[in-house]
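Run log // design_07
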């Protein structure tokens, strides 16, 4: 569990939080910022304080589970595949759900910082829906090592920069998950994008904007 201050969004007083931070907390990425408050909603659903949800691992997981159950509604199917839509809504898009279901299908194992080993057995019968995989395969990325996930045309400027122009690399850190960034770039109201996004866990690269076009990544036109 990272400390809450590592993710705090800019507060009401000068010097509070980070204006670039998403305001997402714990394993379940409970969010609290001016546009979203799943942290507060989880506190209401569970009766656990926001502070405990931010700092206590077990309670953070319980808060995320409560949110997922609320999204799912009255039906609580035993078939995990029937929770796909709720998982997609929890993670702000189907790309998040695809990643979750890939892990459920294959299983996973990792060591926590305190030395505990956490293992998830492969879940029989679980299948990603593959809709995004098919979409990605329909277009080729500029860089051969990347997979194409096109951003909304409202989130970048179409251009035609000559291939001989040198590219000055500007690298940002994602405040949130890899899939949350790809989903945000595909959301027409987000007004931001980047050319490439690298997944930290395995180096997988998604391309959202053509290299000849201008991504809106810097909030500053000359830098873009």
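design_07 sequence
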């Amino acid at each position: 569990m990272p400390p809450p201050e590592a993710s705090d969004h800019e507060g009401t007083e000068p010097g509070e939080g980070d204006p670039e931070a998403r305001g997402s907390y714990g394993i379940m990425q409970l969010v609290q910022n001016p546009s979203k408050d799943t942290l507060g909603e989880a506190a209401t659903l569970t009766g656990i304080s926001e502070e405990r949800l931010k700092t206590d691992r077990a309670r953070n997981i319980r808060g995320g589970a409560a949110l997922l159950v609320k999204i799912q509604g009255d039906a609580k199917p035993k078939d995990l595949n029937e929770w796909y839509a709720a998982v997609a809504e929890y993670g702000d898009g189907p790309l998040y759900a695809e990643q979750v279901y890939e892990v459920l299908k294959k299983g996973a194992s990792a060591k926590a910082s305190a030395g505990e080993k956490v293992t998830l057995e492969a879940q029989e019968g679980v299948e990603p829906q593959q809709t995004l995989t098919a979409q990605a395969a329909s277009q080729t990325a500029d860089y051969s090592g990347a997979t194409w996930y096109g951003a909304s045309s409202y989130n970048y400027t179409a251009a035609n920069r000559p291939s001989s122009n040198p590219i000055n690399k500007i690298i940002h850190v994602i405040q949130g998950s890899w899939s949350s960034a790809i989903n945000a770039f595909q959301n027409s109201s987000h007004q931001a994008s980047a050319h490439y996004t690298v997944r930290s866990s395995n180096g997988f690269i998604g391309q959202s904007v053509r290299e000849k076009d201008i991504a809106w990544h810097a909030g500053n036109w000359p830098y873009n």
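The longest helix spans residues 57-72.
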